[in-house]
Amino acid sequence: MDILSDIKHKDILQVSFGKATADMSKAGIRRVNDGFQLEYFSDNKAFHINFDGSNLFEHIYKLITTNFKECTIFTKQNDIVVFRNRKNELIIKNHKPTKSVVNTSHDKQKNHIIKDGTDAPFLYYLGISDINGVVTDKGRRKFVQINSFLQIFDHAFEKLSFDNKQLKVVDFCCGKGYLTFALHFYLHNIKHMNTNITGIDLKSDVIVILMILLKNTV
Questions:
Q1: pLDDT digits over 102-116, tens only?
Q2: C-alpha distances out from residue 162 to 137, 165, 179, 188, Å
Q3: For residue 101, is it within any domain?
């Protein structure tokens, strides 16, 4: 890894990989809060690994020597292109920087009621997060929508008073149940309330899917 020894991980903004040679079709590394996240695709599925800066160059070196022929390391000072030549030697070239410092707060995560990385099984079974609770790029928009809804509900919730009886909620036209499951998680896991939520929808196939999800998430 001597070829990367002059690069400081604190200066790295993002890493992209190209010209796949093994089982990964594409991969990239980005900053996430105080560390980094590797996202790679294999068999049309996305996988995510979070790690701190001390392991950054190990991940880069492993990917560039086994899975990809080239990568671009975007830093504050320049873009560093690393590639393998015909002799399988690693070559490095520097270019003018094209990336600026990015917002790594995960969509202002501190304001989210359900944080990225939370052990919330419904997020995984609805395709919003991976099995470790890390929100995927594909599911991030829905994740933000869920938290926006919960923020509105939370604001109203604080103004209401409840006795110790079971709280019953009916969700008409619940669809795939994104907000239904989110509300149940909020009331049951965050507010620790005895809650019963009923989802109603005209589509019978949707209800069947929700019943399957229910067995895995509640």
A1: 554 444 455 788 988
A2: 38, 8, 21, 14
A3: no
